Amino acid sequence: MTGAAQLLLLCCLLQGGLCQKWASFMPQSLEGLSGSCVMINCTFSIGLGFDPYLDDTCAAIWTTGGPFGPTVFNSGLTGQSTNANTLQGNLTGNLRAKNCTTVFHNMSPKDDNTYYFGVQCNNPLKIRFPTNATIITITDSLPKPAITPPPVEVEEGDPVRLECSAVAPCPLLPPALTWTPAIGDVKENQQSASVSSVLNFTATRLHNGQRLQCSALYRRQAGHSDLQYENNLTLRILFAPQILPSSRCVSIGSLIRCVCNSQGNPPPSLFWELAGKAVDHSVIPTREVPLGSLVMWSQITVNYLDEDVLSLVCLSNNSVGSDRFVFSVSSTNTTPGFHPLSLFFGSLVGAIGTLLMCLLFFSDQLIKKACELWK
User: Fold this and answer.
1) Are 57 and 46 in contact (CB under 8 A)?
2) Core-most of 107, 126, 195, 228, by most CB within 10 Å?
3) What is the CA radius of gyration of the chain?
4) Is the distance from CB of 101 to CB of 42 less than 8 angstroms?
5) SS3 track for 14-59
6) pLDDT of 278-309, one tens digit each?
7) Are strands 134-139 and 29-33 parallel, antiparallel or unpaired?
8) CB of 247 closer than 8 Å to CB of 213
9) Could you give the domains of the chain?
């Protein structure tokens, strides 16, 4: 080693003001996936006047255990000589630009270690950086993707933005993020150490209670099988009540019984009005019963209404909004024991059946008469 190089090494080992500009910069720790690659984002600085020594002869040197430990990667080796490297990799940074970013391939837990960087040129610049190093840990599993923000309540019609992010220790094989089900527009973004996928959609009542899943699929090197990790989030959508088509009135003897079903989130309340006033004289006490988590059922029983009072109103409301439904009820349009529409169709079918039987009977009589005349 030349005197200049020895002086340079000594300078970098000292803690004096003269050597403050000699430094390397990299993450303190990295976690990688077994069978995949790891990228070390790395930069460095050197003292004034040494930039001219950064030329095409320079190589990145990585050692383990210490700045002067065994060399595991030398970017200057090419062809068959690369077999001398304990780790196979690529220098992706430009040393002239003081960028020492390096990718190591097909890592395994046996490669867990502390890695130090150095520069070695075919000139007086031969240096190791002892003050900064990165600890690499290789595991057989990675954390599941993160979904932000955490579950919150939103109202129907509101825009919703959810972001799923996953670590990407190997930039050559970033994880593929997938939303299930696909209920909106997706925009993906890749950074040096992570990838993200943003899902945008407009909330509707159909989304309430739906479970969204974000999955991260990691493809690995050297024939290792793929790995997939998932995270889930359940949507909670608040929406105004909607009175359901199953609401109806039927006649029971001299009484009219009406049922009102309403769905909303939060679960709605139900009220009855007659002629614009709250009904408080039900023959049978008004009941309000939950059907499931979001549907409410209410029943009211009243006497036949006067001809000039033909409407009974069901009102439903919650903190988001309200809905109303008008029932047309009177002694002339409601038949005991049947819904009016059901009675109409039943009568129609009966009339058609009777007509067909009559036609068959008269046809049979005509045929018999014709036979007698022929004889």
Assistant:
1) no
2) 107
3) 40
4) yes
5) CCCHHHCCCEEECCCEEEEECCCCEEECCEEECCCCCHHHCCCCCE
6) 876 665 555 556 656 688 888 888 877 655 55
7) parallel
8) no
9) 3-139 (2.60.40.10), 146-234 (2.60.40.10), 240-328 (2.60.40.10)
Taking the C-alpha atoms of residue 151 and residue 153, their distance in angstroms, rounded to an integer, is 7
As given in the structure block, the two tokens for residue 235 are 């949507």
Amino acid at 52: P
Contacts 24+ apart (CB under 8 A), 2-8: 2/124, 4/124, 5/124, 5/125, 5/126, 8/50, 8/124, 8/125, 8/126, 8/127
| Residue 95: CB atoms within 10 Å | 19
CA atoms within 13 A on the CB side of 77: 17
DSSP-derived secondary structure letter, 226: P
Q: How do residues 166-208 score in pLDDT, each as one tens digit? A: 999 998 999 999 999 999 999 999 987 899 999 999 999 999 9
Q: Distance between CA 162 and CA 148 in Å, rounded? A: 6
Most confident of 6-20, 181-195, 345-359: 181-195
Residues 167/145, Cβ–Cβ less than 8 Å: no
Handedness of CA 209, 237, 147, 176 (dihedral sign): positive
**Residue 284, helix vs strand vs coil:** strand
